[in-house]
Amino acid sequence: MLGNLSDIDLRMLRVFCAIVDAGGFTAAQASLNTSLSRLSVVVRDLEERLGCSLCRRGNSGFQLTEEGQELFDLAQLLFGDIERFRTQANRLGGMARESLQIGTVDSLISFERAPLPLAIRLFRQRLPEVRLNLHMLRPDELERAVLEERLHLAIGAFHHQLSGLNYQPLFEEEQNLYCSAGHPLFHRAEADLSLADICAAEYVGRGYLTENQRPHGLHFTQTVSAYAMEAIATLIFSGTYLGYLPTHYAAHWVERNQLRALLPERLAYRSAFHCITRQGQVPKAALAGFLDALDAAHRQLANKA
């Protein structure tokens, strides 16, 4: 039984809701960036606190118990009330302006087709009284923050689609596999490069992707992980690792002959970017206004392409 509702209780409830939204423990690993064992411990602790079983796992898949479904529905009401409280509290003491929490991934500023800067300008022209807060997070963190209503919307390349979120397509971004001038493969003639040579090199991957999501199914002998484009670029520039970077982000260094794309005709790929919002959230004028501005910016930039 829950006594006083603590921050720990709220965190456990958010994890439980994220598991339900994802459709199970395994699917929730990526969005919550944690292990199956840790998720199991959180749900077990929550069940012990409540004194009832919340879900079942087995050959038939993930299923909520009657108590689990009721708790999930109650938690949605609770988190909605918290958001409404936050909005009302911000109006006290002269803080009457509505705020909008926006999230994005890093390293998009050099991509001319990315609509966020123009969308912000259009939005500010239409609704200058709304306070904007911009957060830069990993794709899995963005999804979790939107599900937990800490962000109203987010833009990123998401490698799976979670239940509970709306995904609106925006644009595609080209990615290439790079090495730096200090790497042994940098001066190798392309005709002499093979996939075996490339996969024998050490590789820096994106820590929020599983191995089966690696581009072209490449399997490297040695890998390390990083969670931001600048971190990946730093490791590539060490001359030790290969890694994927957005083509627009790497272009400056390619022009200076500091980076080289390896077998681009074969190993390049395109990431699909989406704008995500939470399903079922109460629409606000600010959110609707920003989505309109984002759509207008996207169409304007697409017409220029």
From TrEMBL:
<dbReference type="GO" id="GO:0003700">
    <property type="term" value="F:DNA-binding transcription factor activity"/>
</dbReference>
<dbReference type="Pfam" id="PF00126">
    <property type="entry name" value="HTH_1"/>
</dbReference>
<dbReference type="InterPro" id="IPR000847">
    <property type="entry name" value="LysR_HTH_N"/>
</dbReference>
<dbReference type="GO" id="GO:0000976">
    <property type="term" value="F:transcription cis-regulatory region binding"/>
</dbReference>
<dbReference type="InterPro" id="IPR036388">
    <property type="entry name" value="WH-like_DNA-bd_sf"/>
</dbReference>
<dbReference type="Pfam" id="PF03466">
    <property type="entry name" value="LysR_substrate"/>
</dbReference>
<keyword id="KW-0805">Transcription regulation</keyword>
<comment type="similarity">
    <text>Belongs to the LysR transcriptional regulatory family.</text>
</comment>
<keyword id="KW-0238">DNA-binding</keyword>
<feature type="domain" description="HTH lysR-type">
    <location>
        <begin position="8"/>
        <end position="65"/>
    </location>
</feature>
<protein>
    <submittedName>
        <fullName>Transcriptional activator GpuR</fullName>
    </submittedName>
</protein>
<dbReference type="InterPro" id="IPR036390">
    <property type="entry name" value="WH_DNA-bd_sf"/>
</dbReference>
<keyword id="KW-0804">Transcription</keyword>
<dbReference type="InterPro" id="IPR005119">
    <property type="entry name" value="LysR_subst-bd"/>
</dbReference>
